[in-house]
Amino acid sequence: MAKEKKGVRLDHISKIYQDPKTKKDFYAVHDVSLDIAPGEFVTLLGPSGCGKTTILRMIAGFESPNEGEIYLGGEPINELTPNKRDTAMVFQSYALLPHYNIFDNVAYGLKLRKVPKDEIAKKVTNILHLVGLDGMEDRMTNQLSGGQQQRVALARALVLEPGVLLFDEPLSNLDAKLRVDMRNEIRRIQQEAGITAVYVTHDQSEAMALSDNIIIMKKGVVQQMGDPLTVYYEPANEFVADFIGESNFLRGTLAEKDGHHGQATIEGNPVDVSNVGHLNVGDDVTLVLRPEAAALADEGVLPCTVTLSRFMGNYHNYQVKVGDTLVKITDFNPKNHKIYDVGDEAFVAFGPEDVHVL
Amino acid sequence: MSVAKDQSAALDRKKLLGDPIMMTTIVVLIALLTLFILYPLAILLVDSFITDSGPSLAVFDRIFQMGSFTTAITNTLAVGFLVGICSALVGLLFAYVEEYVQLKTKFMRGLFALVSMLPVVSPPFVLSLSIIMLFGKAGIITRYVLGIYDNNVYGFWGIFIVQTLTFFPVCYMMLKGLLRNIDPSLEEASRDMGASRWKVFTSVTLPLIAPGLGNAFLVTFIESIADFANPMIIGGSYDTLATTIYLQITGAYDKQGAAAMAVVLLCITLAMFAVQKYVLEAKSTATLSGKASRARMLTTDNSVRIPLTLLCSVCAIFVVAMYICVPFGALFKTWGYDFTLTGKWFAQVFTKYHGLQAFGDSFLLSLIAAPITALLSMVISYLVVKRDFHGRGFIEAVSMLAMAVPGTVLGVGYIRGFSGGLFHTGLLQGIYGTSAILIIVFVVRSLPTGTRSGISALRQIDKSIEESAYDMGADSFTVFRTVTLPLIKESFLSGLVTAFVRSITAISAIILLVTPSTYLITVQINEFAEKGNYGIACAFATILIMITYGAVLIMNAVIRRFGTSRATKADKEAAEAIGTDYVESGQVEEL
Q1: Which residue ranges does UniProt annotate as crossing the membrane (chain A) (predicted)?
Q2: Which of A61, A81, A91 sits opposite B468 (nearest CB)?
Q3: Which of residues 285-324 of A touch B (CB under 8 A)?
Q4: Which ipTM value was assigned to this complex?
């Protein structure tokens, strides 16, 4: 449905801000290069202040990069004002025009483009149908629920058939249940419209559910870029491992190595690992172990003492001590499993493929 | 990083240049502000420091040698200080009673509303007229109630009483907002821990609003110092800086001396303005962030309620009575001697004293100035709040600076700056002595209040609403026309009326610039009051009050009629903020 899918390319983009208190310059975004393919759904994920929204606002044109060039569909757009860029943004606060009704809100951009009246009416009706707001044309914005306002904001952006759709944490003002519904809707509509989308959020489950690719940022620097499976199972560093999902970090040294396989020493215990091709014997290693990838058993890899044991309904939560290292273990569907109590001696059990070596 | 910073700056510049309407607006605005606010003030400095023999302090030496000038400084500061304190205290009393005490009768609530309304519609010198009629030699109260035949209201006490009564409603409105924002649970906690009501007031409420009280004091102090009309009418031989400067020009024809005096006056108000704006204003809101969690329990205890409401009523009724005096002054044959009703003063206004022309001129000039002011102030607030560009700070600072410039100073600046053309070169000399310069002065004098209310209205609007329009393809002008302006139309309307009312009641700068061929109502009132012809002065003032009151009524009707159907919480808050700010900005500080 989009006129033309456009890719977005950021070429060594930096943005410098001044700290209002210390008057010192700092990089809000530092040397970010991205290549977003036409029709792709990409999420910028990171804690607040990581520069993700700044990147989005630079693509929209509200901020100017200090370094680098931004391309939209191959064209450099650095010098274009926001109204001249083929982008449409869905704002965190929805930013609906409160003095217009729904129809006029959605038609606003089309009117500016001097689209004929009957065509505007047709397009608006179609797009309102797409977002499930049939027959709401005459409502005022304050007569809508949060979810409905969100849909209007989405319709308003979609109707312009922009080269790229920009989302600035659009779901953060909705309650938890609505958020899940809306994110599925957004994904469905984006797929149907076949539009390139850049989505900013700090909510990892949103990023997982929506994206073809996730870009994880910290303090203005890209930490990792990849599809949801990759960033979850093969995090590039501890920050990514910790930010997406929960992680245990087992620190030790590499004792033996044979090709890709090897053995690490963790708290004095030998642990078989794979994918150690990038390391040498004697190097420090950190193993990323997801809580749900480990089990608590009478036999296993690392001997431990249980320090916390909590039944949570659909899972059982353990914290155990391996030497000085605290390890979290999640046992899903624990009904028929052995339950360990605080003070019990046991083993943390996992296989070489269950850990990711940093 | 400096090279990198340049790219962003260069891009922002290019984006700005790619938006010609915005660019033109900014350039024109900066030019206008420089020409009509900065330049007249700069020329005062130049004139008073540079004599025929080069730069020197000779002029200042000369004026400080004048006993009358140094006395005027002491007089001005003495009156201002006392007026500031008393206005803040009376304002606090009213604000406290409104926010803390259960007002039982509709009459009382009406009285409070009236008091907060009066400074909006009243010309600045009305109270001076009425105090003369009540307490002067032929005053009703002094002569007929107290039997005093030689009471002298002119001088320090006259100015003090009139200014306090004129300015305290401003303090009342300011403090009311602050008291409302105090979380009642703070006071309840203190009460719960065993404090008496008085102890709560002195240990919780008062410390919390102390910066606000200081703020109110300074605002009134500045207004009192800058006030021209009241000292002119009721000051007698007690000269203040504003009247001394006026006399230096109109009586002594010493324009250079007047320029130097204006610089002194300007320095005093600027210094206070700086303290008020950057120290107290920030503090007074910082201590009271957030809103009251729930409504305050109003005191019904009669031992508190009765004395406080009684005190307020006496004050309020006194003020209202003074205003009522004015139309009667115009209806009695000879005030103080012959109380038969007559229409002759009103008739004479039109038959003998160019009444029609005066009202026509004042009305027309204000009618032209008001939309210009309202539009300019909205554009300035839009640029200041919503846009980021080089020169934004300049625009904001200069339009706010005008608030600290007394009208008399501006008047002298215009005389020095434009009577001989720009920098005495003859350029633009054509506008001097015309109606155009009066309109410009009207605009400059009303701009700060309009801008301030525009800024506070725009701050309530989420920035992303305009960004979304911009993002959808609207250029700056379209965004302003289709989004910003519709969203702040109440503020725009009230700005329009405030500008009109302020213009039609303005006197201090105008009286220095008006030519004999132009008749303005305020100038006429001043003239007849000076001559002691109170019947005519009152007739003029009565009609003027009716015009301003009519304008406010029309505005309220229009806002009710065309007020938006938006009813979200944020909007209501915005409307409330505009509402209070309207009254605040209508404070008719005739600086």
Answers
A1: none
A2: A91
A3: none
A4: 0.80
Q: Residue A151 has which token pair? A: 């849909």
Which token pair is B541? 């003032």
CB B327 within 8 A of CB B540: no
Read off the pLDDT of residues A113-167 as tens digits, 9 standing for 90 and up: 899 999 999 999 998 988 888 888 899 888 888 888 988 998 999 898 898 999 9
pLDDT tens readout for residues B218-230: 989 998 998 888 8
DSSP designation for A24: -
Residue B503: both structure tokens together: 């213009």
A316 to chain B, minimum CA–CA distance in Å? 41
Q: Containing H/E element for A348?
A: strand A345-349
Evaluate the CA torsion angle B427, B431, B436, B437 in order and state its sign. Answer: positive
Handedness of CA B450, B452, B457, B458 (dihedral sign): positive
B579 burial via Cβ count (<10 Å: 0-12, 13-18, 19+): middle
C-alpha separations of A323 from A21, A351, B180 in Å: 44, 20, 59
- CB contact under 8 Å between A112 and B478, yes or no, is yes
Strand, coil or helix: A168? strand
Using DSSP's 3-state secondary structure scheme, residue A341 falls into coil
Beta bridge partners of B184: none
- 3-state DSSP percent of chain A in helix, strand and coil, to 5: 30, 35, 35
- With 0-12 / 13-18 / 19 or more C-beta atoms within 10 angstroms meaning exposed / middle / buried, residue B102 is middle
Encoding tokens for residue A48?
A: 């607040």
* Closest of A233, A226, A194, A222 to residue A211, by C-alpha: A226
Cβ partners under 8 Å of residue A354, min gap 6? A289, A290, A293, A294
DSSP secondary structure letters along B516-581? TT---HHHHHHHHHHHT-HHHHHHHHHHHHHHHHHHHHHHHHHHHHH--S---HHHHHHHHHHHHH
Name every residue whose Cβ is closer than 8 Å to that of residue B439 and which is 6 or more positions away in sequence: B365, B368, B369, B372
Rounded-to-integer distance, Cα A29 and Cα A34, Å: 12
Q: How is residue B369 written in tokens?
A: 């100035």
DSSP H or E stretch at residue B243? helix B241-250
Q: Do B475 and A88 touch (CB under 8 A)?
A: no
**Residue B356 CA: distances (Å) to CA of B327, B328, B349, B350, B368:** 18, 21, 8, 6, 18
Tokens (6 digits) for B99: 């926010």
**Short-list A271, A282, A215, A239, CA closest to A43:** A215
The DSSP call for residue A250 is: E
* H/E stretch holding A262: strand A261-266
**Which of B5, B471, B564 best probes binding to A when mutated, by most A CB atoms within 10 angstroms?**
B471
pTM across the whole model: 0.78
Pick the residue of A13, A59, A108 with the most B CBs within 10 A to test the interface with B by mutation.
Answer: A108
Whether residue B492 contacts residue B563, with contact meaning beta carbons closer than 8 Å, is answered with no
Residue A168 has phi, psi (to 5 degrees) of -110, 95
CB A285 within 8 A of CB A269: no
Whose structure tokens read 């003998």?
A: B352
CA distances from A332 to A209, A296, B227, B362 (A): 21, 12, 79, 83
Q: Which helix (H) or strand (E) holds A164?
A: strand A164-168
Sign of CA dihedral A152, A154, A156, A159: negative
Residue A140: strand, helix, or coil: strand
Residue B4 predicted with pLDDT over 70: no
- Per residue in B171-200, pLDDT tens? 888 888 888 878 787 788 888 888 888 888
